[in-house]
């Protein structure tokens, strides 16, 4: 009888644990102070957009932090993530992504989806529809929290992808089934690195002169630091829509660095890596009016022809101009995060090279053998990258490979 009583009590406890509210799983974390980069919950995290630039870094950070992690990619057979479960699903398919979340027993969704081009059609499909599909799937499977990778520039929305991001943010705010956090990074290091090889070869650093010796200023954040900030939102009640501030503008540790100053930093980084005296860089300032003329000419051609391809070129031109004139700069201490400086990144690129990206690193060469060998497994995935956020320095006429 006593044995039967113990078994019955154990069974009752197990059943209670199975239906325990998911919020209870973070109660132990709340007993101690939150520590950035360290604190975690006992939850299962699913990352969508996992094979993209930031998505890969987020998967690595979730695994490092100790989360049971599922990485959602288009084709699971072509992806490789150490320590994470890989699931193939299309985020544009609500049924498919819902099944993926259910299979992973998802408690928290981290959405790193964002359009590659930033054009209207691409943004609507990815930044809004696919991202909201992931929200609906999270609600269906009973997830507790949803973290959205947005963009700092949505605070001044003039572009299609910004409007799409804001629609997704509004969808999050308009429901009450899951709590949420929105991370708005200033700029990615990758998007400011496209001219390192040009300077290394003796060419000019081109920047847009806004007049009065001014150029656009930002404090970008490294992918590793940004991933850490994103994963912090899983456990940090201060970043939750339930009693906290869910929208987080976040940049790196640097003070504001103008485009012109970026050229100076690259020259310094190259000299330190090569162990040679620093050479004054050739800084080529292009008046912003030249850009305006180019964008205006493309708009004229679009009005004349109505061609979808010309429309895309015009939208890309608008994106390029936006980032040529707008500062992507956080100033409050709570909006600065991480340890890696832009100069450290430039030194890394000057030493090892970087992977070509038609939307951000238009001058970059293919990665060196040393860089490939040093890349983590998640970086070496053969899966076509999911869309990542458009960053500062997006080129005017980039084309997908």
TrEMBL record:
EC primary class: oxidoreductase
Pfam families linked to this entry: NAD_binding_10 (PF13460)
Protein EC: 1.3.1.75
Database matches in InterPro entries: DVR-like, NAD(P)-bd_dom, NAD(P)-bd_dom_sf
Domain of life: Eukaryota
Keywords: Chlorophyll biosynthesis, Chloroplast, NADP, Oxidoreductase, Plastid, Signal, Transit peptide
Protein name: Divinyl chlorophyllide a 8-vinyl-reductase, chloroplastic
Organism in which the protein naturally occurs: Aureococcus anophagefferens (Harmful bloom alga)
Highest classification ranks of the organism: Eukaryota, Sar, Stramenopiles, Ochrophyta, Pelagophyceae
């Amino acid at each position: 009888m006593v044995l039967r009583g113990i078994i019955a009590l154990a069974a009752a406890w197990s059943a209670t644990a199975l239906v325990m509210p998911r919020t209870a799983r973070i109660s132990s974390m709340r007993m101690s102070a939150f520590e950035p980069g360290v604190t975690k919950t006992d939850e299962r995290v699913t990352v969508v957009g996992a094979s993209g630039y930031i998505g890969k870094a987020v998967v690595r950070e979730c695994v490092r932090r100790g989360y049971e992690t599922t990485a959602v990619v288009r084709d699971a057979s072509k992806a490789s993530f150490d320590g994470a479960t890989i699931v193939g699903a299309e985020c544009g398919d609500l049924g498919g992504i819902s099944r993926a979340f259910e299979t992973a027993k998802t408690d928290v969704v981290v959405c790193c989806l964002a359009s590659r081009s930033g054009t209207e059609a691409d943004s609507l499909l990815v930044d809004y529809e696919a991202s909201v599909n992931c929200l609906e799937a999270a609600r269906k499977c009973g997830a507790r929290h949803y973290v959205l990778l947005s963009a700092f520039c949505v605070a001044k929305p003039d572009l299609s992808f910004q409007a799409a991001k804001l629609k997704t943010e509004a969808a999050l705010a308009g429901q009450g089934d899951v709590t949420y956090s929105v991370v708005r990074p200033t700029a990615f290091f990758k998007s400011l690195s496209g001219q390192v090889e040009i300077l290394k070869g003796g060419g000019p650093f081109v920047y847009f002169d806004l007049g009065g010796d001014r150029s656009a200023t930002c404090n970008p954040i490294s992918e590793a630091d940004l991933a850490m900030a994103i994963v912090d939102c899983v456990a940090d009640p201060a970043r939750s829509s339930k009693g906290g501030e869910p929208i987080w503008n976040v940049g790196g540790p640097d003070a504001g660095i103008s485009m012109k100053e970026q050229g100076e930093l690259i020259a310094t980084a190259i000299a330190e890596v090569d162990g040679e005296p620093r050479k004054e860089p050739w800084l080529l300032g292009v008046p912003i009016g030249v850009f305006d003329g180019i964008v205006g000419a493309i708009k004229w051609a679009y009005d004349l022809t109505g061609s979808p391809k010309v429309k895309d070129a015009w939208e890309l031109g608008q994106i390029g101009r936006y980032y040529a004139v707008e500062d992507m700069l956080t100033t409050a201490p709570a909006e600065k995060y991480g340890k890696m400086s832009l100069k450290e990144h430039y030194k890394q690129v000057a030493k090892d090279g970087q992977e070509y990206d038609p939307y951000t690193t238009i001058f970059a060469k293919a990665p060196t053998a040393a860089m490939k060998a040093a890349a983590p497994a998640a970086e070496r995935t053969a899966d076509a990258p999911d869309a990542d956020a458009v960053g500062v320095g997006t080129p005017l006429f980039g084309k997908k490979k």
